[in-house]
Amino acid sequence: MPHEYDIVPIPQNRAAREGASQAERLHWFREARFGLFIHWGLYAIPAGIWKGEETAGIGEWLMHRFQIPVAEYEPLAQQFNPVKFNVREWVSLAKAAGQKYITITAKHHDGFCLFKSAVTNYNVVDATPFGRDVCKELADECARQGLTMCFYYSQDQDWHHPGGYGNTWDYTYDLDAFIDYVDHYVKPQVTELLTNYGPIGLIWFDTPYSIPEQQSEELAELVHRLQPNCLVSGRVGNAKGDYASAGDNLIPEAMVGGDFETPATINDTWGYKVNDHNWKSAEDMLHKLVDIVSKNGNYLLNVGPTAEGVIPPESVERLLAMGDWLRVNGESIYGCGAGPLQNAEGLRTTQKGDVVYLHIFNLPADGVVKLPLAAKVKEASLLMNGAAVGFKQRCGRLTLQLPAVELDPVDTVVRLVTG
Ligand code: GLC
């Protein structure tokens, strides 16, 4: 069963050993704060249902849940023909949502590759009627629209390859065979992804269930050798990543002493499931974004497109609503980190330099907000329109009087200039 991921401590001295500073490598990531995760592959075809039975779990784990033999699952590739795939629409949606990077499943646990690989024909170009390199089209469109391209790559679980971890129904796991798989399959494919698709922001490794420390280290070093500024996710395993990966949909209670990223779903599945309608609200996800950034983290929010290449309208609607809020309040998110106040009821703070952004989730009827704040406030205003906010500060406590104007019921941000 999948491990529950704890936040793994990341050695902050890694980049220093390799010439780049950790701050340089993480710069774009800290500026971005909000990214789009895309889980897309053969699992979108069954969409959670196999021979009439619905999986209770996440859609992209269907092959594992039903222990579908490779010989039965692999022919799905002959049905993969997403005639409605429109890469410009996908990237434009991410941009409109205020997401600054896109991470797509280049190879997920089922082993199917969404990119042209010389290492295996089990890929979208060679094995499907679609015959197009999805990762290439996405990388080119991201470059055109100014988003950072990133790849998810399952380096440990591979239910198609006999050397991969996780397929106990067709194969018997063997560590030597796994190490050979890493050396002669994973490393060449990671090299393809970091050679053929332009500048890549991050390789999102996942589920380090069996990978030994040496192989985690070698993969991280390979990524940094091929593209020195490319980040490695914490799930490369053995604390060899460049930042910490939180568990799925998990937001740390408190700051974790470094950079982290929370991968999250809009409903309950990563890969498309026809019957998963448990959609989170845009308000809830905006609060999650603010909460995560208030602790120095990034929010990687997922969509699972259908087999035809359509992002569910419920996902589109919510992402666009988040983008509306970010167009007004993005200054309090992008390039910001933890503020001085943590985890207060209905309040969060983010900060950039001397400016503290106070996020008010529950507007008080009398417009009065009180909070502990040691830093001396010089100016207070509504981020949404610059309107002045009255304030008094005594003995490290700040009292704000919000103006009697229409405020944002989801999150009203007060911009506090300190110093
Ligand atoms: C877990 C799941 C995987 C999914 C990932 C997203 O690792 O095993 O299917 O891609 O979470 O964070």
Overview of the structural elements:
26% of the residues lie in helices and 20% in strands. It is an alpha/beta fold and 419 residues long. It has two domains: 311 residues, Alpha-Beta Barrel (TIM Barrel), CATH 3.20.20.80; 80 residues, Golgi alpha-mannosidase II (Immunoglobulin-like, Sandwich), CATH 2.60.40.1180. The strands form four sheets. The protein has an eight-stranded parallel sheet with strand order 7-6-5-4-1-10-9-8, with helices on both faces. It has a five-stranded antiparallel sheet with strand order 11-12-13-18-15, with helices on one face. A three-stranded antiparallel sheet has the order 14-17-16, with no helix packed on it. Strand 9, helix 9 and strand 10 form a beta-alpha-beta unit. The N terminus is likely disordered. Bound molecules: alpha-D-glucopyranose. Alpha-D-glucopyranose binds next to loops.
Domain module tally: 2
> Quaternary state, please?
single chain
Mean pLDDT: 95
Ligand list: alpha-D-glucopyranose
Strands ordered across the widest β-sheet: 7-6-5-4-1-10-9-8
Gap from first CA to last CA: 50 Å
Helix content: 25-40%
Biggest sheet descriptor: 8 strands, parallel
Secondary-structure element string: HHEEEHHHEHEHEHEEEHEHEEEEEEEE
- The fourth-level CATH homologous superfamily of the largest domain is Glycosidases
Structural class: alpha/beta
Number of strands: 18
Rg result: 22 Å
Architecture per CATH nomenclature, i.e. the level-2 architecture of the largest domain:
Alpha-Beta Barrel
The CATH class of the largest domain is identified as: Alpha Beta
